[in-house]
Design goal:
The protein is an alpha+beta fold. The protein contains three helices and five strands.
Length: 158
């Protein structure tokens, strides 16, 4: 039983790191493609539609609408739907973004990426801390019971 609990805790602690590694690899690929720097302005907010496979329904989230020009063409594309970022990305704010020269509709905002990454790291630390506290809450009573068994024998627990 102890081995199963320890295995489950290890999996729960490792999962956030696996997700972080996946996100970092995905970001690096996007950064390697998006090499052109342009100035973008938040012109409004837009609704981004998502599908919830659990409920089989759609929902919308608000995102800043960036407007930028690349090679004489004007683009308007949505940024992150992170609610904390929305407070920072006010209408009229300007940010340097990086654009893929082969596909100018593909972009990322380095400041937005850093902001969201920092927030996600904080959430990850809280999750790992809670998992470790849960692990300790489960393991400490087991450890004390084992110590009592070793010290006093089975008659102590009766």
């Amino acid at each position: 039983m102890d081995h199963i609990m320890i295995f489950l805790i290890k999996v729960l602690v490792l999962m956030p790191f696996i997700v972080v590694i996946y996100v970092i690899v995905r970001e690096k690929k996007r950064k390697s493609r998006c090499t052109e720097s342009v100035l973008a302005e938040v012109v409004s907010y837009t609704s981004v539609r998502y599908y919830d496979s659990d409920d089989h329904s759609y929902y919308t989230k608000k995102a800043p609408l960036y407007e930028y020009s690349y090679n004489g063409e004007v683009f308007q594309l949505a940024g992150s739907t992170d609610s904390k970022w929305l407070k920072k990305a006010e209408i009229g704010s300007q940010f340097e973004i990086r654009v893929d020269p082969d596909n100018p509709k593909s972009f990322f905002c380095p400041e937005e990426t850093r902001f969201v990454r920092r927030r996600n790291i904080k959430i990850l630390c809280v999750v790992i801390g809670c998992l470790l506290i849960l692990f300790l809450a489960i393991q400490i009573p087991i450890w004390y019971a084992n110590q009592a068994l070793n010290e006093f024998g089975p008659s102590y627990l009766s």
